[in-house]
Amino acid sequence: MPIKRVPRNTPRTLTSEQKVAFALLVFLALGGVYFGFRSFGANIRRPFDLQIAKYLRGEKFTTSSQREAAELEASKTRDTDGDGLTDYDELYVYKTSPYLADSDSDGFDDKTEIFSNNDPNCPKDTVCGSEAETVPSQNAVPELVQALGQASALLSAGEFDFDSPEDVAAFFKQATIEEIRNALLQTGMSQEELDQISDEDLERFFNTTLDEAAKQGAFDSVIDKQE
Predict the structure, then answer these.
(1) 197-208 residue pLDDT tens
(2) Would you give the distance in Å from CA 28 to the centre of its chain?
(3) 116 neighbors 99 (Cβ within 8 angstroms)
(4) Are 108 and 102 in contact (CB under 8 A)?
(5) Long-range contacts of 80-83 (CB under 8 A, 24+ apart)
């Protein structure tokens, strides 16, 4: 049986267009790798180059802690919200916002409230924070009045006739701040709690509490004893 020979396939040669396209792809690939490494290296060197540039311009090299210290120092003279208080005082002294002129949004800027002895973080006519926790409740009024009666020299001044609970409240409103504080100590409040309340706030809350207590009949027993 005769052997049939299979002709060899001659290798195909690339056309000119294919050679150009292949060369272009290789060029782009190598260029991408090259520029990629250059960009990577530039990103690594950039922080150091910036520091060197600052040094050449006469600027000092600073660490992160030094930059924080410089920013803190700058805040002592900067007033971001324009309320008349430095950012440093707002952040670390008064605990208000350096970005809001009126931190509690009650219509009065922070500086006005601070210099008028008000809380810049508490809206006007509102009880906030520790004051709300330390001011005595109306339920403690009878005990407070009893303690105030024992501590106050007013009751020993003579006989008094009370026609209404409001008269009783008005009588006790004549007590001094020292007498009120002593009476509150006798009712169980600690000296630390009292020290957190200013004289103005204590007097305001005390008078308000007496008025409310008079409306609720807390002084009826005082009037009954006179009858």
Answers:
(1) 788 877 887 787
(2) 56
(3) no
(4) yes
(5) 83/109, 83/110, 83/111
